[in-house]
Design goal:
The complex is a heterotrimer of chains A (616), B (239) and C (166). Chain B has 239 residues and is an alpha+beta fold. In chain B, 26% of the residues lie in helices and 21% in strands. Chain B folds into two domains: 108 residues, Ubiquitin-like (UB roll) (Roll); 108 residues, no CATH class. Chain C has two domains: 65 residues; 78 residues, 3-Layer(aba) Sandwich (Glutaredoxin), CATH 3.40.30.10. Classes of the chains: A alpha/beta (616), B alpha+beta (239), C alpha+beta (166). Chains in contact: A-B, A-C, B-C.
């Protein structure tokens, strides 16, 4: 059915709302990529089969939703209206969940989340510490809707911001509202979205393009994917509002091909949007027309850089160009182009619906609203967290993330992806926003937050990012193409025991020339992980270079695996698994590793249940 | 005209022209490698980086692309500029240790090789300035050569590293190559020319008998211009 | 089937794919992805067909086909292993798994074994960091990988390797 006016949209929404009973039982199952990998799809099928088998369709709804964020505990199931939170739900649990919990209100203890700090079992989603301190304005809807259902989106107020804008707001007023909200780009740079919109609107040229950058390339960051997968219409709605304000009729979503589910869900959303008439010609009889095409990337991190992304959309290799002329004047096909990332677009309907003043009330002085971070690495509660700007790193890592896993001690948190830096413990109480992170030598980036503990070698981390960027450099400009690999070679030397006195100084000097001399941000920010680890963890560099030691026990050439006689009970598991056959010993007697033959594959340490294999 | 300052010298430049052009026409030398007047300016080599000052802000830009602005203060020799230039030349010396052009340029600017960089052995003398690929696409318009791969593996060549069907053997790529990496060889008799692993039969001038151009090139010119081939078989000197 | 026939068939398939994208050269990356999906890699004849049907020089198509990491110009193995080396997986031990797979399969990342049994590559973050380290085995995500779990996977796929099962 196609709706042709604001009135029709309103009555359709009312019809949907009236047909839904908020008190009806509904089993929601997270079907984001993380939970799917845990087997969520078979779980959905199992629930459906159980409900059909017992003819319970009238009593129980079932909904596969977008990502709930708490990926560590997948598959996640939340039962409405009570919002009972079950984690690690298996196929065998389905029948019991239906008959005991849904129909009888009985809680299944074994599926509850246990707060590791208090040992307390938690029943309701909102009480789980992981969620408690979050402010899930943008991300929270994910868990309530089926991303494939436009009706679900309408039921939670979807497309009301679009209607508001098209039905009486001048484009200039929309821009003013977004400017007043001080919405800053969530893709990394933190540039004001409103200013960008205004420049594109004022630029001369036709057509004008609106682009959603979903080429989320920072390793360890996946909030954009989860938004596209879990609530694609909110991004489409944001883009439509932006396009209306800018005066554009053509939009693109450029999405990583590594995100098949995001591609699928957003493509379905576009089709449904067209069918309903919120996308296409003369939307809601407003005279405004806009359509969106989805273009998939081909595996190139550099395509997250706007000019490289345009080159890719033009069918060429993703090589950036000098940005002395802004994309707002000459971007895609040399036409005025406004590019924002997924999360930025998803904020737009909120601002329009609730107003800039409300939005302004959240966050710090110069960073408003919330930010979604992906909290990963050496952390207990891996997942996506949305917090108001200004929360401290400590609150995020300790309260929401539950700290580092047993046995490890927090060392640093890496933010900003390969362009960012490592932040040491001394800054944990710093309230984070765009500017604070930059000040300590890192950056917001797209929101990756990788926690590292004392078993993470910071020199190796610096090498890791350089190796990553070396492989992702487009190869156009000399400093990035040649400089990054020369830096990596020096770091290889340091990590493999060939470091020389003065290497750190050479790295610093190359870094400064790279920052000034690179053509695009990939090269210009490549030294950040190196500079920040030198700044905060210089003693680790010295240990590698002077003492030829890796304090974290990571760099293969500088460590030895040894068996601790005290702890070894001679079970022989390690010896059986050792591919180099270099572990020997009598049964029930401490074993020994032949250092000459050891290939340092790590399988003995990993398989020892008594922590008897140590690294020195 | 736009008034600006380059190396403390007040200069005038046409609106829309670049810092590099403004400097050159005022006798201020900025080293370049990938720049060519007739081709797309890619800004790939970064050798022509200069420091500009607008108000209180200073930044490094490539002078071959950045356009002159009123009141701009340009420094082509600042410490930051020299740092970039030094690194670029050291990196290129390590990439192309055999290249005399690079070595001479480095000597002129006073840059020594960085001993910490291990010289490459597999890159020949190609610095990836892009001029060959641009001339083939933009001037000759056959797009016979292009890039392959990315990062340090990026290379210039024909598709699939095989003799190209599109190549007309004109040699424009070899002429613009600043380092002499692209080799074009002619047999002693002059009857044949080899470039990018493809052998071209040369045409002898109907009048003087000198072998002067590959058959494919003449056919291409004939097709492009509509001049009958019979006319093209006479070399320029004899026409 | 004769070779000429199979090339013709390939041409037709490529033409179909290109038409699906309205012969828009802006979609060359997705087009090549579909072509690769069809033929398991990007055969030379298919790239030539893309070039002629899109009216884009083969040198430009070759640039794109070699620039993006998703493409392979050589046939890929029957079993495809992709190890995530995103930062989260990396700090959780992906490097040890990488060198173990390299050792067992005698394959550097990005390579295919001569018998076309295995292809092994590394990918930069699949965005499933909670499951890290992740190994994707023929399209299926396997989480919380360890060296010995990897060996079990490889054994299942027919490799001779020591596991705690023997």
């Amino acid at each position: 059915m196609k709706i042709k006016s604001f009135k029709e949209l309103k009555s359709l929404r009312e019809k949907i709302s009236n047909s839904r009973d908020p008190e009806k039982n509904c089993i929601t199952i997270c079907a984001g990529t993380g939970c799917l990998a845990y087997g969520a799809q078979s779980l959905v099928n199992k629930f459906k089969a159980e409900i059909e088998k017992d003819n319970l369709e009238e009593e129980i709804d079932i909904r596969s939703t977008g990502c709930h964020g708490f990926c560590e505990q997948g598959p996640v199931v939340v039962i409405y209206p009570e919002k009972v939170f079950y984690r690690r739900v298996g196929l065998d649990d389905a029948a019991e969940v239906i008959h005991k919990t849904v129909l009888n209100g009985e809680i299944l203890d074994r599926l509850l989340y246990t707060d590791p700090s208090s040992g307390e079992k938690i029943i309701h989603e909102d009480d789980v510490p992981f969620y408690k301190k979050q402010m899930r304005l943008v991300f929270g809807m994910n868990g309530q809707i089926d991303p494939k259902s436009l009706e679900d989106y309408l039921a939670i107020g979807g497309y009301s911001a679009l209607a508001k804008v098209l039905n009486g707001m001048e484009p200039g007023a929309v821009i003013e509202e977004v400017k007043k909200a001080n919405l800053r780009g969530r893709g990394g740079g933190g540039f004001s979205a409103g200013w960008k919109w205004e420049s594109t609107r004022k630029a001369k040229g036709d057509p004008k393009y609106v682009i959603c950058n979903a080429d989320e390339g920072d390793p360890g960051a996946y909030m954009d994917r989860s938004l596209l997968e879990g609530n694609p219409h909110s991004i489409l709605e944001g883009m439509m509002i932006g396009a209306y304000a800018i005066g554009s009729n053509e939009g693109y979503i450029y999405v990583r091909n590594e995100y098949p589910l995001a591609v699928k869900n957003v493509t379905i959303a576009i089709e449904k949007g067209r069918e309903l008439g919120v996308l296409g010609e003369d939307i809601l009889d407003s005279g405004f027309s806009f359509d969106i095409k989805v273009n998939r990337g081909g595996g190139a991190f550099v395509c997250g850089e706007s000019s490289a992304l345009f080159a890719s959309l033009e069918g060429r290799t993703g090589e950036p160009r000098a940005k002395y002329i802004h994309a707002t004047d000459r971007g895609l096909n040399n036409k005025p182009t406004n590019l924002n990332n997924v999360e930025t677009w998803a904020n737009v309907p909120l601002i329009i619906n609730k107003g800039a003043e409300w939005y302004q009330s959240i966050g710090t002085e110069n960073s408003k609203g919330t930010k979604i971070f992906s909290l990963v690495g050496k952390i207990n509660n891996t997942g996506l967290v949305e917090i108001p700007m200004g929360m401290t790193l400590r609150e995020i890592i300790e309260d929401i993330g539950g700290g580092t896993p047993k046995g490890g001690k927090f060392k640093a948190v890496q933010t900003g992806g390969p362009s960012g830096g490592c932040i040491p413990e001394q800054f944990l109480d710093m309230p984070i926003d765009f500017d604070a992170l930059t000040k300590v030598g890192s950056m917001m980036g797209s929101g990756g937050m990788i926690v590292m503990d004392d078993r993470t070698c910071m020199v190796d981390v610096a090498r890791y990012f350089l190796k990553f960027l070396e492989g992702e450099s487009c190869g156009k400009c000399v400093p990035c193409r040649e400089g990054v690999r020369r830096m990596r070679e020096i770091l290889d030397d340091i990590c493999e025991g060939r470091g020389r006195e003065g290497d750190v100084e050479i790295l610093e000097s190359i870094s400064h020339a790279l920052i000034d001399g690179s053509l695009c941000a990939l090269g210009a920010t490549a030294p950040n992980p190196v500079l920040s680890t030198i700044k905060y963890f210089r003693e680790e560099y010295s240990a590698h270079i002077q003492e030829k030691k890796c304090p974290a026990g990571v760099c293969k050439e500088l460590i030895r695996y040894k068996i601790d006689e005290e702890n070894c009970n001679g079970c022989g598991v390690c010896a059986r698994l050792c591919p180099a056959e270099c572990i020997s010993g009598e049964k029930k007697q401490p074993h020994v590793i032949d250092q000459e033959k050891c290939i340092k594959c790590g399988s003995c340490r990993e398989s020892c249940k008594f922590d008897a294999v140590i690294v020195e | 005209m736009v008034n600006l300052t380059i190396d403390k010298k007040k200069v005038q430049a046409e609106e829309g022209s670049t810092i590099l052009k403004a400097a050159q026409s005022n006798g201020i030398e900025i080293p370049t490698l990938c720049y060519h007047d007739e081709l797309t300016t890619s800004g790939a080599c970064r050798l022509c980086s200069v420091e500009i000052k607008k108000g209180e802000r200073t930044r490094i830009v490539t002078s071959c692309i950045y356009q002159v602005e009123k009141g701009l203060i340009v420094n082509t020799q600042s410490e930051r500029v020299m740092n970039v230039r030094r690194l670029v030349l050291q990196l290129l010396m390590a990439r192309c240790p055999e290249s005399e052009i690079i070595r001479e340029l480095a000597e002129k600017v006073g840059v020594k090789p960085q001993p910490r960089f291990k010289p490459d052995e597999d890159k020949g003398e190609c610095i990836l300035c892009r001029q060959c690929v641009e001339v083939c696409e933009e001037v000759v318009e056959v797009s016979a050569i292009g890039f392959s791969y990315r990062g340090a593996d990026k290379a210039v060549g024909t598709p699939f590293v095989e003799p190209s069907r599109a190549c007309i053997g004109c040699g424009a790529c070899a002429y613009v190559c600043p380092t002499g990496h692209i080799k074009m060889e002619e047999s002693d008799s002059g009857k044949e020319r080899v470039i990018w692993d493809k052998t071209f039969k040369m045409v002898a001038c109907k009048v003087c008998g000198r072998y002067f151009a590959p058959q494919e090139q003449l056919e291409y010119i004939g097709k492009k211009t509509g001049v009958p081939l019979s006319k093209l078989y006479t070399c320029v000197n004899c026409r | 089937m004769s070779e000429v026939n199979s090339v013709e068939k390939m041409e037709l398939k490529v033409k179909d794919i290109i038409q699906k994208y309205g012969s828009d050269r802006g979609f060359v990356v997705p087009i090549l992805q579909d072509v690769q999906k069809e033929f398991n890699y990007l055969p030379k004849e298919a790239l030539n067909a893309v070039s002629s049907h899109l009216d884009v020089a083969i040198s430009r198509i070759f640039e794109v086909a070699t620039f993006y990491k998703a493409f392979s110009l050589t046939p890929r193995g029957r079993h495809q292993l992709s190890l995530c080396v995103g930062t989260a997986c990396y700090v959780r031990g992906a490097p040890l798994i990488e060198s173990n797979i390299e050792r067992v399969l005698d394959l550097r990342p990005g390579k295919t074994s001569p018998d076309l049994e295995f292809s092994f590559d590394t990918v930069n973050c699949l965005g499933s960091c909670a499951l890290g380290p992740i190994l994707v085995v023929d399209g299926e995500y396997q989480g919380q990988m360890t060296v010995s779990k990897t060996n079990k996977v490889l054994k299942k796929l027919g490799k001779k390797v020591k596991t705690d099962e023997n």
